Amino acid sequence: MHNPLLKKLASVDRLTEAEEQAAMALCHDVHAIARRKDIVSEGSSPDCIHIILDGWAVRYNVLPDGSRRITAFLLPGDFCDIHATVLKIMDHGIIALTDCKVAFVPPEQIDRIAGSTPSLARAFWRSTLIDEAILRRWLVKGGRGDAFEAVGHLLGELYVRARLVGLTSDHSLEMPLTQEEIGDATGLTPVHVNRVLKRLREAGLATVKGGTLRINDINALRRESGFDPNYLHLSVYDSRP
Predict the structure, then answer these.
(1) Alpha-carbon span 41 to 60, nearest angstrom
(2) Where do you find CATH 1.10.10.10 in the chain?
(3) Under a CB-based contact definition with an 8 Å cutoff, are residues 80 and 39 in contact?
(4) Based on CB atoms within 10 Å of each CB, which residue in 20, 167, 182, 204 is the most buried?
């Protein structure tokens, strides 16, 4: 199973071979999106649903003072906007952090699957609910005001999610995030993020260097940062890195 969408869906539900083929058919119309380009802009009315197949993207809003707040990191296998054709107007933007390959899916194709393949539709729905659970957990972590927990939790979450779609190797993950982007997701300044990353490194929990995240001890990171992956509702999760 090399398709990241199949890996993502398999992490939330069991699919038959026919359902896997139906999911694969969503990845027919693939576009290259250059780094720092919007995949979907805030205020737009997208006529397609977008799925990340390669690269990293983020959901974001620009605040009145011009600063940016990141509300989700999108990895291969993630839907960008499965709700957008229902809500009509995007209330946030989605930008490619790296060069990305993105599937453009007509909404009627999703509708056909929902009508003919209920279990696959349930997997789409569960995936969307997990996205909401992630946002809720970010809000809770950010509201506690503990920078160490917020950053440690984020790194643990990204590592687990990336592992599910085959992006980790030897306890490590290529993670193309700057300290500013980590700060935009956690509500911290880059200077504060730098201090927390130093604490994580000195504690032997995790190291971020040269675009690579290395988790030295996932169980210790879970304990120290309060990262409990149960909110991800992933049937294949275990504690091994």
Answers:
(1) 10
(2) 145-232
(3) yes
(4) 182
pLDDT at 85: 61
pLDDT digits (tens, 9 = 90+) for 107-136: 888 888 878 888 888 888 888 888 888 888
Q: Where in the chain is the domain with CATH 2.60.120.10?
A: 4-117
Contact call for residues 96 and 37 (beta carbons, < 8 A): yes
CATH, range 145-232: 1.10.10.10
**Res. 26: pLDDT tops 80:** yes
Residue 221 in contact with residue 151, Cβ under 8 Å? no
List the Cα angle 182/125/140 in 5-degree steps: 35
How far is the C-alpha of 121 from the C-alpha of 202, rounded, in Å?
Answer: 45
Average per-residue pLDDT in the chain?
A: 88
Rg (CA), the chain: 18
Q: What is the mean predicted confidence (pLDDT) over 224-238?
A: 75
Give the whole-angstrom CA distance, residue 163 versus residue 34: 24
* Strand, helix or coil for residue 76: coil
The domain 4-117: what is its CATH number? 2.60.120.10
